[in-house]
Predict the 3D structure of the following.
Amino acid sequence: MDAPSFSWIKCNTDGAFDVISGENGARYVVRDFTRKATFCASIVFDVHSAEEAETRAIWAVLKKAVEQHLSQIIIESDAIFKHILFFSTKLSACFFSFQPRVCNSVAHELALWAKKNSSTVYWSKPPVWILPTVEEDH
């Protein structure tokens, strides 16, 4: 592991999940430019895969960095970045962007439906009940 440049911090994250027991854990360790560990965590989340645990670890360390008023961070991870890179490079183009919920109402309504019904469903066309929202969404 290379030390980060002066004024930067480097964070190593990982997630673990046991498919049989459902036990999981996420961890992170943050080091400064001298390689000194400045904080670390081991966290349990309600997740269903190692990738979810790792994603939550990244979320947790970003939250901690903001709380600590840090401004420059390098996040190192294995599985989740590898999977994102693998799938996104199979496309001719892939962009990530933040959209407030008001601009993403169809996805939000479908997420609420899944939560309410505790169900995973894939549709080839939007279900009839969501069509008015689809037509309003931008």
